[in-house]
Amino acid sequence: MELYLIRHGSTAGNLEHRYVGTTDEPLTGETLHKLEECRDFYPQPELVFASPLQRCVQTAKVLYPDTEVRLLPGLAECGFGEFEYKNYEELKEDARYQAWIDSGGTLGFPGGESREDFMERCCAAFLEGCAEAQKAAAKSAAFVVHGGTIMAILDRFSMPHGDYFAWQVKNAEGFSCDLEWGIANRGQPDDGGEGESADTGLVEAVVKKNTVSTGSTDEKVGKISADLCGLVNIHPLPLSPGFTGIEDQFVMKKNKKLRCGYTTGSCAAAAAKAAAQMLLSGQICYRVDLLTPKGIRLHLPVEEQEMAEGFASCAVRKYAGDDPDATDGIQVYARAEFLLEDVLWSEPAGREAAEDEAAVEKLTNPESFVTAEKLSDTIRKKGGADRERESQPRIWIEGGVGVGRVTKPGLEQPVGGAAINRVPREMIAREVEAVCEAFEYQGALKITISVPEGVEIAKRTFNPHLGIEGGISILGTSGIVVPMSEEALIASIRVEMKQKVANGERYILITPGNYGADFIRRGGTSIGSPIPDGQNVEVQKHTVKCEVERNRMEQEGADTQNTIEQRETERGKTFSKEIAREEFFRLSAEDSMKCSNYVGETLDIAEELGVKGILFVAHIGKFIKVSGGVMNTHSAHADCRAELFAAQAMRAGTPPEIVRRLLDANTTEEAVGILSETGSLAQTMAEVADHVKFHLQKHCGGAFETEAILFSNQYGYLGETDGAETMMEKMMTEKMELVRKLEEGRRIDNQAEL
Asked: CA 465, CA 592: separation in Å to the nearest integer?
């Protein structure tokens, strides 16, 4: 007999993560609507049993409006006693609750049921329903019950056995399984069914009695024997598009609930699994289950199914939740096909085999595809160690249209390979191998992942900058998209820096955001480059330095005018030489990378990767915070810009009345304006730069060099740390050496071709 164990839909208490036991609350309106929309995706049993609590009755009647719902009181949820309708936040300080958690949930609830009593009650009611279904000669039955009820039943009767908490299930989800009677019908005559007949009278008697001896003459407990029946072939129920398994996954950001999604890697693995299943079964797949590395089980709808001789393909649509993801809503396709015979038996069966021109040519020839029958014949002809080796499924994973190709070293995949990262590859291989084993297929399959929309989408991503051309990357380490994830942003910083190091760069140019890159593009850090007001940065730098010297000499009472003019004359003699060296010192925004607000994490990554130096080109709005030791410049972490400006201005000897104006400034641009008009800018920025360098070095422990160039959008160049110019020289020297090595490599390659 086929059974379906279905948990009821969501209630208000469920959504608030409360312990909803005996509380008899209804489903939410949204849940009722979803269940109605998804009704056709649920299995249609001959009989329906349910807990008498209204959330189960409502679910059963919505899913099975034309079937009588038979109520079994023993299927009701556990009584949580004094924990009833409370959640973790309300209970975490309760010592009894902590004791219950520490016990692994084995202790009884204060004033409620023990797990043992609850399990006995549920199992007795379950067997009662099974006996009734057996008596009615039903071939299938559904039990619409509670999460705890399902856990109790499967803990007792699952084969192979799974412990209580292994069977947790989300609202409106469940399991399908086959019922096999145990000792109750051993030696009993078969009624002509398919091995599922039982002495239902004996089962009913045992259920009604509900007691067996524990070995003590004065102690009887309700102990339903697991030998009465077994539940085998247990699988998650395929659900509707309304229930993908991601609904209850969210994060809180600024008191707002943000929905999670699933990655392109999860989509690729799910599509590959469905395509392989269609190829080997010959049947269309409408839904596929996927266990993500994070442990969240997804139930994803399959689209664009296509089957023909030797291949099957389909797509799974990406869902990014509330994350601003450029790939949200795109279809990720997978094509499964039998490998070519000459590629199949190659060692290893991978990309290297396809690099043979003849093999590549055959990939477009349908007559070269190996059919399942041909593969089976070939396998049978092989023997010994070869047969043992070839009996294991081998999966060849490739990238198709819209999946990028790696063109630079330093990424997870080698140059020339498809930009399908390691974890998605592992997920694809695992899922496809499981399908091959389920169908006892011993051959090899080629899986091609394609994203037709990826060609255009990639142009709006960092992929071209990273050296991934022609499409997007198939990504994901957990399989789940966390909206506005700091981890994902920091991981992207690591990927880009790792690639730069792999390409030979040891001095890295970094901008926190787009302002810095724009400043570089308009000549901000190159000697003699023009900027919007018609000056150049080198002149600005010279003017600032003169102003610092002028202020110092004024304080010392010196004859400033003659001295400054003399210094400017001396400067003019060398300035033309520096203009002549303009090309040597020029830095390119295309050589820079962004670190966003994560200054500290960027320094940590740089130390880990063996970087020798970092030059930050940063807007004063972010790096004024760094001058106070703030290594995450997001306003949610610290917004002390005015206070730090005031502190550095005081260190520079700025009059108190000006410092008070700085404290009232609304923006850093306004603060820079105040300092500029009062003649305090240069010395204040010198203090800012000194403290920026101090805190950068303090964070990395002097493991490598750190310098910074500071600017504002309105006033341009503001100042730099004392080693910034030397750092630029090292960067350009390194760049010239890398270019030389690249040209030398090309020259050697050209000679080899000749």
From this structure: 10
Radius of gyration of the chain (CA): 35
pLDDT, tens only, 621-662: 999 999 999 999 987 788 889 999 999 999 999 999 999 999
**CA–CA separation, 8 and 170 (whole Å):** 9
Residue with tokens 């011993």: 442
Helices vs. strands in the chain: H and E counts, helices first = 29, 28
The SS3 assignment for 382 reads: coil
Tell me the sheet residues that pair with 311: 308, 337
Cα of 614 vs its chain's centroid, Å: 29
How many Cβ atoms sit within 10 Å of the Cβ of residue 426? 14
CA 108 to each of CA 17, 99, 162, 165, 167: distance values in angstroms, whole numbers, following the listed order: 20, 10, 21, 16, 19
3-state secondary structure 177-203: EEEEECHHHCCCCCCCCCCCCCCHHHH
Query: Strand 613-619 vs strand 705-712: parallel, antiparallel, or unpaired?
Result: parallel
Mean pLDDT on 350-361: 38
**Which residue, 346, 377, 487, 512, is CA-closest to 442?**
377
Angle between helices 264-281 and 422-438 (to 10 degrees): 20
The answer to whether 144 touches 194, Cβ cutoff 8 Å, is: no
Residue with structure tokens 């009821």? 8
- CA geometry: angle 650, 654, 660, nearest 5 deg: 75
Q: How far apart are the C-alpha atoms of 715 and 647, rounded to whole Å? A: 21
The answer to whether 592 touches 520, Cβ cutoff 8 Å, is yes
Asked if residue 476 lies in contact with residue 266, where contact means CB atoms within 8 angstroms, the answer is yes
Q: What are the tokens at 440?
A: 């006892």
Measure Cα distances from 604 to 611, 630, 696, 701 in Å: 10, 14, 11, 10
The model's pTM:
0.50
User: E-strand spans in 598-733?
Assistant: 613-619, 705-712, 716-720
Chain centroid to CA 326: 14
Q: Report CA 400 to chain centroid distance, whole Å.
A: 22
How many CA atoms does the CB half-sphere of 506 hold within 13 Å?
A: 11
